[in-house]
Design brief:
Length: 377
């Protein structure tokens, strides 16, 4: 199949899912066209089956806001015609589903039917899309999509609760390429670079937005390091990072916390990690938790949104109410207290992650694409 994928190219769950999906589809012989405003960060190499088309928005002094949707829908029309693309898959409703619908209509005018699949990722529904300024357009574009998927049951429930949805929503969870994370790369994890003998390594990875509750990450770690020797690796960048650095100084733990910035070497970082922290306010799925689990890292998370669909209580880690820092720290210490317990949780984390292997999830998308194409035959 010839598939156009529209996504955000930045570090962030929806872009990562879209990119990994496209790359795996290409490996399975499909022709993939990424259409976005810059090359997706996880898209290192282009190949005969993987194309990238940049959306440019020309600057004009009259525009206070640059009309990205307009440029995106025009680019979609051009690329669909040029490459004879058969299906459009948009990730994140805003503004992609809206621009996709406009492209569909323009193409229809020229006698071309382009089926559109929309995948809802989380904040496009729970935080941004729900804003009254966007709601009518988001509702409209979800209802106009040929097929709609959500990355968890919890997100599906939220979408139905928050919007007047007439379309079916199919749950297709986030996925992970298990072999990539478990294969022996030949390079042993170099723990000694990061921590001393006997120190536990704890990691948080995110885009450091408010919804991730970064101060909670620091405070949970603060409580842990009072009891056992430990280091915290903070990976990612975003608006909350500076405050987090200040908080570490105030708590006197700046020598135990390492801020890395954005990284494309997540696997190497997770390879050193004993425990992952994700105390988010809300998380439609929690791809970062799944990525950790696929590297045999147990997870301490909040129990909001879809996190309980990926982090299994007492098995791959523990879940607590949002903001319950004390309980999260206690649960972390339960996991980290001795090597036998930690190893059991590590084994469990990997086996839960295997349920989300890309090999199990990808066929769900392929059959949806086929259904979407058939709809117009
Ligand atoms: O987590 C973020 O802030 C990024 C965001 C995105 O859209 O890029 O992630 C959302 O989509 C991911 C992939 O489907 C999910 O795993 C994340 O849970 C979800 N984030 C939230 O719901 C906050």
């Amino acid at each position: 199949m010839k598939i156009a994928i529209v996504c955000y190219p930045t570090f962030g769950g929806s872009g990562v899912v879209a990119t990994e999906l496209g790359l795996e589809l290409a490996r399975r012989g499909h022709e993939i066209h990424f259409i976005t405003y810059s090359q997706p960060v996880r898209l290192a190499l282009l190949s005969p089956n993987v194309h990238y088309h940049e959306v440019n928005v020309p600057e004009y002094p009259l525009f206070h806001y640059q009309p990205y949707e307009l440029a995106l829908s025009s680019k979609l029309v051009d690329m669909v015609k040029l490459y004879k693309i058969e299906i459009l898959h948009v990730h994140y409703a805003i503004p992609h589903a809206y621009a996709g619908y406009m492209a569909q209509q323009m193409l229809k005018d020229e006698g071309i039917n382009l089926p559109m699949v929309t995948t809802l990722h989380g904040t496009d529904i729970t935080l941004v899309g729900n804003h009254p300024f966007y709601k009518p357009a988001v509702t409209f574009s979800i209802n106009k999509s040929d097929f709609v998927t959500s990355v968890s049951q919890s997100l599906k429930d939220d979408t139905i609760k928050l919007f007047n949805i007439k379309n079916e929503i199919e749950v297709i969870p986030n996925f992970i390429e298990i072999n990539k994370n478990t294969k022996d790369s030949g390079e042993p994890c170099q723990r000694s670079v990061m921590a001393k003998e006997g120190e536990r390594i704890i990691t948080h990875i995110s885009n450091f937005r408010k919804v991730k509750r970064i101060p909670d990450v620091i405070k949970i770690f603060y409580n842990i390091q009072k009891e056992i020797p430990a280091k915290l690796m903070m990976v990612g960048d975003g608006p909350e990072k500076e405050k987090a650095e200040k908080l570490c100084e105030e708590l006197g733990i700046e020598d135990k916390v390492i801020f890395f910035g954005n990284s494309n070497e997540i696997d190497k970082i997770l390879c050193l990690t004993d425990l992952f922290l994700l105390p988010s306010e809300t998380e439609s799925f929690g791809l970062a938790a799944l990525e950790a689990m696929a590297c045999s890292v147990p997870v301490i998370s909040s129990n909001s949104g879809g996190l309980s669909e990926v982090n299994f209580e007492g098995i791959s880690g523990y879940l607590s109410d949002v903001g319950n820092i004390e309980e999260m720290a206690q649960n972390a210490l339960r996991i980290l207290k001795d090597d036998d317990t930690l190893n059991k949780f590590k084994e469990n984390a990997l086996s839960v992650a295997k349920q989300f292997d890309i090999k199990n999830i990808l066929p769900l998308y392929e059959s949806l694409y086929q259904k979407a194409i058939n709809k117009y035959i």
